[in-house]
Amino acid sequence: MNQNMNLDFIQKQMEEIEVFGTQPTQIDKLDRCWQPGDHLHHSNLPSQSFYPYSPHYAHMHTNCSSDWEIFEAVKIQELEEVKARAAQMEKTMRWWSDCTANWREKWSKVRGERNKAREEARQLGIKLDSVIKELSVLKKINQDLVSEKENLENGTAWKTECSCSEISYIKKDQNVLTFLETEPLKDLNKITKIPGAEDTKKDVNKDQRNENKKFTPKPPDFFSNGLHSTYLEEPKTSLGTTAKTTESDLIHVSVLNLHLAEMKKILQKEREMNVFLEQEIEKMENELFLWKWKYEELKQTKLESLKQLERMQCENAAEWGKREQLEAEKQSLEEETRKLKMQVKEIQELLEMK
User: Fold this and answer.
1) For the chain, which has fewer Cβ within 10 Å, the N-terminal or C-terminal residue?
2) What CA–CA distance (Å, rounded) separates 77 from 142?
């Protein structure tokens, strides 16, 4: 029992010496206390009863020397194990510090990529809104142009119908005038060729005047209702007026033709503009589809980066847990070494008192 207690005490003392530095043992004190030529009654020398080579301790010294060698070897081995454990702990602490540094670096990189992705997504959203607004404006312009085109087509159709109807009416008036110019002259020639019964010239003249007064040329049936009296009384003046009206109508028709040509040019330009706008709209739709695809891709990368960030946070939490566990083990070892140090001090005080 006493031997086991001595072994435990020596083991703890050797651990304390190896961990906290070499402290002088009682034997070293005894070796340093006496030097050749010193006085025997030195204050540091122990009493004769405590000296190991006294007859009182002769038997104990022989047993303790062999036990001391064994315990010293065991203690040296244990001290080497403690050294290896301390070195391993130092390596693990360095490894954990390197891991935390790497994690911080990765976290800063991921955070920068996340901020960059957010900025790109914001820019893409702004561009998408602007493209949608431009597309709506172009659609409105296209609708306005289409309505304008329809209105112009309706106006040109109405004008062409009016011009065609006016030309047909002018042709009918010209036919009527030509017929009226020729018909009264024929009737008058027939009347002058009728033979008279009277002998004298006065009677012939009277008869001719009477016949001229009684004569009223009948137009054809289709002109009986709508024919004006001026055409019958004054054919020459009506020819001049109809010529003037035909000239004015021809001028009006030529002006309408010019307007029609201009409208056709405008319609051609509007068609070209419409085709150009349709191409632009198609181009904008393609760009919109491309931006949407890029936006979805950035969204996917953002989700992947968030998943990676969560995984790294979990790893960091696990690493911090291991680090806290190691720190707790370190604190427990430090407390144990403090206790051992206090025990060694108490044992040294007891030995000095003895």
Assistant:
1) N
2) 94
